[in-house]
Every structure is written in C-alpha cells, then in structure tokens.
Amino acid sequence: MMLKKFGFLKFKWQYLAVLMIGLAAGIYISFHWPAQSASAKLVTLNSRGLKFRVVTQSSDVAGLFSEQAISLQDTAVEPGDGAKLYSGMTITYRMPVKVTLVDGGRESALASNSRTVEEFLKAAGVNLAPKDEIFPESSSELYEGMTVEIVRVEEVEETRAEPVAYTTKYQDDPESFYGAETQVSKGADGEREVKYLVRYKNGLEVSRKKLSSQVTREPVSRVIRQGRKIVVESQEQGRASWYAYRGCLCAAHPYFPKGSLLRVTDSLSGKSIIVTVNDWGPNQQTHPGRIIDLDSVAYKQLASLGTGTLEVKVEKLKTE
Q1: Exposed, middle or buried by CB within 10 Å (0-12, 13-18, 19+), for 296?
Q2: Structural domains present in the chain
Q3: What is the pTM of this model?
Q4: I want to staple 294 with a disulfide (CB 3.0 to 4.6 A). Which of 78, 149, 195, 298 is the partner?
Q5: How do beta strands 76-78 and 106-112 pair?
C-alpha cells in the first residue's frame, strides 16, 4: 500500500511540473508575441467616398502614404500627415482633380483638392451674389473632369419713356359725298413713364416685369370728318352672287371702275350695304343675269351664303 501511495504522489508531482512549464510559456508568449505584432495596423483609407482597408507597419500618416506610394503634394489629408496611426483608424484624403469652371460664360480649367462645389468655389476665391445660380448644386461632390457653372443673375429696376398711341375720332359730314374724308386735326402720340423689374442672366435680359406706369403726356386724337351725303348717279337691277376673296365690304363689277362705291339692296328684304369695287366680274356672257359678285363678308350681311344668289338693286354713288 505504501509503495502504491508514493507512486501516486510521484505521478502528481510530474503532472504539476508540466503545468508549471506550460504556464511559464503562456506568460512568456503573452508578453512577447503581442509586442512583436503590435506594429501591424489595419486602417481604412477614404478617398472621395471610395473606401479600402490596408495593413501597415508605419507609425504615422506620412509613413502610410509613402508605403502606399500616394503623393501628399497638394493632397488634403485628415488627420494631418504627422498624426499617429492606430488600428481601426480612418484616414480621409483628397488628391487634386481637374475641374472646368464656367463663370458668367467665361471658362477656365482648375485643379482642386476640395471636397464639394461650395469648398471649391471658396478656395478659388469666387464671390457669389445672392441670386446667382450654381450648377450642379453647391453640396455636390467634386470629381475628375467635372464642370461647375455659375450663372450670374442680376435684377435691376429700369424706367423708360414709352409712347401712348393716339386714337382717331370720326365725325359725320352731311354736306360731303359719302366716302369722302377730311382731316380736321392731326393726331399726336402721348408719353408714359413705365418702371420695369428686369432680370439678366450673364448680362442678357431674360425677363421684364412691369412695376408701374404713369402717363406723363396725354395723346391728342386725330379727327376725321366723313361724308354722309348720298347722291345716286346710276342704278341697275339683277342678281348678286358671292365669292371668297378679300374678306371685306367689297365686290367685283363688270364695268364700274375700281374704287367706285355701290349701294346694294336686297330686293326681297330691303337690307342695304355699301361696298367698294376692287375686282372685275362676273362674266356676263357666262352669267348674263348676274350684275355683281359680292365678297362673302358683304354677302352675309344681306343673306346666308346658302341662298346662292340674290335679286338686288345696285346704285352707283357720287363721290365727288
């Protein structure tokens, strides 16, 4: 029994020795292995929204960029190139991109490491007025080959003098033949002062809004006396047809000269109109019963066009 007991104790002491050796090795590794791997860091690089992770042995940002062969010349880096690195760190950088600036129609090529259009314009020293328009919008991210356009907008009040057209007044003259006109007084335009709000884009007018208007000089009406005395020189009876010609109170006649004034009366209804001869017709060899062709506008004042022809009395009026 005693031998067995001592044998058991011997076995336990050996087991304990192995455990002690393992513990010592663990302590050694825990103090030395991390120290050897602590120099390797996992960091995230962010360039204009594009993110990628790298493992680096560098201790600061400048060393990391040198390690990755990224030039720091004209490159914006956050945090700065002297910042110390640690695992899990995110470093944002922006290398210069080529941007075309169109300002008020004038174009120039620039390089910028700004993040947004707003930062780009500020860095370029571009001053904006409150109403100026920016395309694309100022919060847009810059990218290679981008075009930034500024439309210069200006609104100014302008006052100008504008004419006020005169009107013509007609007076009846019972002593003059029908159709005669005599000018009694000559008309004269007036004038008004008009204020506008004018909107310009890049120096070109795009809109004009009237703000106020005031007449500063009244116009003077032109006065015309019109003869109303009717004297019939000759008359005839026959049929009237119609045709679409000038759209006026005018007619064609086989022999009365152009400019003649004719009073045409519908024999059935008694309605009358006065027309001016401005064409020749109808051909009485083809239509021997027709003595006048009325323009459709004149004909409709006597009857509907569907009637075809009318029995009329035609009177030539004395004009002088």
Answers
A1: middle
A2: 41-94 (3.10.20.90), 97-151 (3.10.20.90), 155-226 (2.20.230.10), 231-317 (2.40.40.10)
A3: 0.59
A4: 298
A5: unpaired
